[in-house]
Amino acid sequence: MKSLFTAVLLLLFTVGFSQNYTNDWDKVISLENEGKIKSAEKIVRNIYSKAVNSKNETQLIKTFFYKSKYMLTLEEDAQQKIISNLQKQITKASIPSKALLNLVYARCLNSYLTKNNSIIRSRTYVDSMEFNLKTSSFNEFTHEIDKAYSETLKEENILRATAIKEYEQIFDFFQPEEFNKTSIYSYLLEANIEHYTTNANKWGFHNFQNEIYSNALLGTNEEFKNTAFDSLKNNAILKVIRLYQMADYKNTATELELDRLLFSNEYILKNPERLLKSLSSLQKRAPDNYLLQRIQLEKAILVNGLASKENHPDYKIKAVSLLDSILTIDNKSNTFKKALQKKSEIVSGLLSVNMLKYTYDKENTRAFINYKNIDSIKISFYKTDYETAEDVILFDSIAKTFQQKHKSYTSKIYHL
After folding, report:
1. Three-class SS of residue 354?
2. Residue 13 predicted with pLDDT over 60
3. What digits encode the pLDDT tens for the residues 253-291?
4. Which backbone phi and psi does 414 adopt, to 5 degrees?
């Protein structure tokens, strides 16, 4: 009976303590929504102290995720303190927690570098054993960031065996069904891909044998993973390709596989027709409507971009049809909203006419007409005085009234 009472007491204590964290985070989010970042950061500091005292790693990591958001709004001393505390906790944490904290550390440094880029680039190198926000050079920053990202993927087997669900209190943005299926390793690998993609240059010329490797880049996952890509000499792009090759791909299509195809084409191949074929193949393996919608959106964007009167006169219609297939599933997803916006952009009419404001009597002149989704234009000329003409140009309501009350001098319809 005594042990039962102790167990119940322990359970009540645990639930109550968890509830305290929930209440604290609710206050943080409420203050964020009100724009009171300093007040929110103060509560996060209190949660941090509570998490340190209770040795709650999950809550500790969560505080650093929030601190990283606030870091650039704080004074320099406070920023350095966050970095110092992060470095200290990384040495104490378990392997999965250490990897997550290294991700937060890398993102903090990267945000600071982005905001203070010119200042940091002007610093001279100082031989120092420790990294410091105030004194470290640009090269030291990039080295420290790369090192931190590298640390996130160490101990691969342990990270693969640790489900995101074990850190559920941090990753509350995950879909419930994804918690058990997604590992810490997968999450961190995607974070690495996102970071290094921003460092890659998609506009440069890359010394790469496109024709030889197009099937590997846009083909099956197995072929992609087993290809060396040795002729790709752009290190930044090759880094991202190597990260994609480290991923675990499934028989069904995934967001990661779609991202890999889009990256390969945008940064290397630049072959929309070939990508369209790959997306059509991927579409057949889509396990749910969310991914299917995203694939259809990418196809619509490609088809619309290829549309032309000479080669693909029906591609605008095909693009709208693809977008309509997305809009039939009203799930209020981001893809649904983007498809709605894209369709409006494609089907909306556009007409602008540029002419010389003043011409001499009987002078020949031309008008430059820019149009979209318009098949004809009627141009009418009216005789009037200068002041009335100025009002007609400036005010639509006056122009409409003028047109109703006056007969045109001449009119002509032009078919576009």
Report:
1. strand
2. no
3. 999 999 999 999 999 999 999 999 999 999 999 999 999
4. -110, 130
Distance, in Å, from the CA atom of 403 to the CA atom of 409, rounded to the nearest integer, reads 11
* Both tokens assigned to 383: 């005789």
CA angle 236, 242, 248 (to 5 degrees): 145
Q: How far apart are CA 60 and CA 49, in angstroms?
A: 9
Asked if residue 383 lies in contact with residue 370, where contact means CB atoms within 8 angstroms, the answer is no
Let me know: does 289 contact 270? Beta carbons within 8 Å.
no
Q: How many CA atoms lie within 13 Å of 30's alpha carbon, on the beta-carbon side? A: 7
Residue 109 · residue 145 · CB < 8 Å: yes
Summary mean pLDDT of the chain: 86
What SS3 class is residue 208?
coil
Tokens of 74: 């704080």
Helix, strand or coil for residue 178? helix
When mean pLDDT is compared across 206-210, 326-330, 394-398, the lowest value belongs to 206-210
Give Cα separations from 98 to 83, 87, 107, 391, 395 (angstroms).
14, 10, 14, 69, 64
Contact 197, 238 (CB under 8 A): no
Torsional sign, CA 214, 218, 222, 225:
positive
With a CB cutoff of 8 Å and minimum separation 6, the contacts of 339 are 293, 296, 297, 300, 323, 326, 327
Residues in the chain: 416
Q: 12 pLDDT band (50/70/90 cuts)?
A: very low
Taken in order 119, 78, 105, 261, the sign of the CA dihedral is: negative
User: What is each CA distance from 354 to 223, 288, 365, 376, 377, in whole angstroms?
Assistant: 54, 49, 11, 16, 14
pTM for the model stands at: 0.80
For the record, the structure tokens of 18 come out as 């968890």
165 or 291: which leads in pLDDT: 291
Tens of pLDDT, residues 44-69:
999 999 988 988 889 988 998 888 88
